[in-house]
Amino acid sequence: MSKRTFQGGIHPYEGKELTEDKEIRPLLPKSDLVYPLSQHIGAPATPVVKKGDSVLVGQLIAQAGGFVSANIHSSVSGTVKCIEPRMTSNGVKVNSIVIENDGEYREVDAAPVLDDHKLTKEVIRQKVKDAGIVGMGGAGFPTHVKLTPQNDDEIDYVIVNCAECEPYITSDYRRMIEEPEKLVEGLKIVLKLFPNAQGILAVENNKPKAVKVLKELVESEERIVVQSLKTKYPQGAERQLIYVTTGRKIDSSMLPAHVGCVVNNVDTIVNIYRAIREGKPLTERVVTVTGDAVKEPGNFLVKLGTNCEELIEAAGGFVCEPEKVIAGGPMMGKAMSDIHVPSTKGLSALLSFKVDEVAKCEPSNCIRCGRCITVCPGRVVPSVLAKLAEQGNEEAFLANNGMECCECGCCSYVCPAKRPLTQVIAGTRKQILANKKK
Amino acid sequence: MTGLLNVSASPHVRDKKTTTSIMGDVIIALLPATIVGIYNFKLDALIIILLCIATCVLTEGLFQKIAKRKYTMTDLSAVVTGLLLALNLPSTVPFYIPILGSVFAILVVKQLFGGIGQNFMNPALAARCFLVISFTGKMTDFTYDAVSGPTPLALLKSGESVDLMDMFLGTTAGTIGETSALALLLGGVYLLVRGIISYRIPFFYIATVAVYAAIYSATSLGGFSLEYVAGHLLGGGLMIGAIFMATDYVTSPATPKGQIVFGIFLGLLTATFRIFGGSAEGVSYAIILGNLLVPMIEKFTMPKPFGPSKKDKAKKETKEKNEIMPNTVKLFLITLVSGALLGLVYAVTKDPIAEQNEKKQQEAYMSVFETADSFEELEGFDSEEAGKILEDGGFNGSDISGIVIALDSNKEALGYVVTVVSHEGYGGDIEFSVGISANGTVNGIEFLSIEETAGLGMNATKDEFKSQFTGKQVTAFVSTKSGAKAENEIDALTGATITTDAVTGSVNAAIYYCDYLEGGAGNE
Ligand code: SF4
Ligand code: SF4
Prior knowledge:
Chain A is α/β, with parallel strands linked by helices.
């Protein structure tokens, strides 16, 4: 397969060697579990339990609050302690269900596993929806919505984002290596929804093992191919991924379905497999706990709702007081003010740095070096957009295609003057989007 | 863990390159050219370089102190400006010129427009142009090995031949840093490898000049001449301009396509200036003019945002217009406007430069005919005819390239200043002027171009040698190795008999020619 790539992008320090050879270890929570009702894009879920109720593993505790929303299930057995606002990794308090863990992990009866011929499109979609599956790369868009385009026949490609282009994170990689069958089976289920589609497993070529394992598995699969992509950040960004795998382009105003594509994350596909073949809802995910501030970086199978502090402990605790802890990767992850927050569906990594290198950077004048322009995968002009954003000139910001920025962070990364380009551009984008909704 | 952690928006990692590290790389890249400059022009060059850097950094610091702005001296950009300015000065300028230029560059061009990143002209180049306009004479006085002479490009322009190897290595006349194409290219490669500049501007700039010169030589100079094209590429500061000045981030387009347009544009301007303009050098003006057009070039070369092309989208939305036409028209207009600006610059600088050349010429005549008050062209002089006359007289190795009449204050003729070319030099042609009184007395000789072996033949330019001819009235000089005794004997230069004979022979030719003129006049 050709090593296709896109224009722009960067090669930051990958940091994957810290955890890429660490097997996924299951982690059992010790303290209370917290389930924020809003850990996906769309309406918050509505609790279906109340204080004092006892719950089982896999039991529905909050129901999707609309079509674009997702169910939430308990990941342990125990008692509902309370429903109250709790701090999340985003730094905001969100109404959450708190469950006291009885440590017994009694499970609800798994949903019936159906024979293949009974798996109609409707059944698959319903099961994905019931299982509360969302995009697990971080965005958290409810998966059943993605899997429901206007016309199933117009979908030509189902792309699985196995690029994992964010530095440090290896959770998807470990899944690919350890449970490749589940990934391929999951993809086959999704392909049932789209009769004309080809499945593409898009892997960056810095993961030769994964490429090899997957290629062997899909050898006999007519509808699935593995594409090895050039290693470059942000190879896994949705628009770039669609372009490099299919040659089709979309802009910010379009959905992948407009060009006949559906894009999903590795863990998402694996969880579709679990929901359909094992009858289990989404209650756990793989999280990479890494960075130079933790003693023993590793990959963990985490029960959703587990306090992040326990993840750090599982990784041997901190070497020293970290200056920064990030939920997600270094490029697009969110810095957390406090690690006493629950792990959620979108948490792919917990990255701790001894030193916050960004805090040391003092922005100076733009020297017009053009680096930001060269690396921008959205092909916009970050230096100009940032200036307009700082001036609050939304009109000019829009005229200069500000909305085509995907907030990948490349421009800020390369800027020698250390200007916070992504930050101010993203700020203005959010404001414009918020105003639109009004 | 108690304290709150640092929170900031993503991304949380940064590339190691900083403004300071980039400036540091530029300085490293300039080192080869700096070293060649100091080697060529010795202490003079070193002093000028240090003066420029010190003045630039101090000016920046002082201004920021007075204006209460943040200090930026440590970002090394002022050092780069100072170094670049120094490399663009001739080594002979008096000390106040580097100081004045540095203050102008930093204060007027950079800081008054808001400091680093805000200036719209390259500070070092703008300062150089300012100096050329204000001190034309001192700024166009080029020497090499202490011999004042025209730059290779000036020779090329007047149709003479140049030594390409000298131009490549840098052993030729020019500003401190522009002479060695090799050293500059080394620096350019370093910048490319370190990712400081892209190939676009230098490549398209140099390529455009090459194509232009090739076409011009093929169509107007009677056949394509590789020497002519190579001379254009290696000479006149094109290398330093294309690699270091045109790629200055602040004053060149940041858009990739814009950089290509910019490079081609500079190439066209430079070649036009050089070939059709008043002076042989065109790089500085071309870049300064180009700088002014950068905002426009950038505007038309903004990258297209990632996404379906307009055409694809138009199928669905059918609203976007084709915008390519107006852009071409605009670019054409830009070229027209810049053409007009270009003419303007020449109007300003042409006369001073011509005047300066004229003055230099007069000074040269004066040095070989001290008693004269002014000089006048000899009417009806024809170099070819003169050559025949010499041949008839048995002077085969010499040619007369020019002759003027020396006049006293009453406009009475005193004699001639003959410019002779000897083809018998060891290292090529030797050109020099000889002042000869009407009675045949030699008043002095002065070299215009000479490329003999350093330390041997080059000693011909020393006063000791030259003065042997002065004040003598003979029909022919002869060289001797055994110590000059007779009036017409000239001490041969140690180890350079060929050079001595070449010069002596041509002096004799000049004497013969003057005698012919005087005699010829008498016959009429
Ligand atoms: S402008 Fe947006 S898309 Fe472009 S590099 Fe910056 S963050 Fe990425
Ligand atoms: S990378 Fe930074 S310094 Fe360079 S052009 Fe962009 S904003 Fe300016």
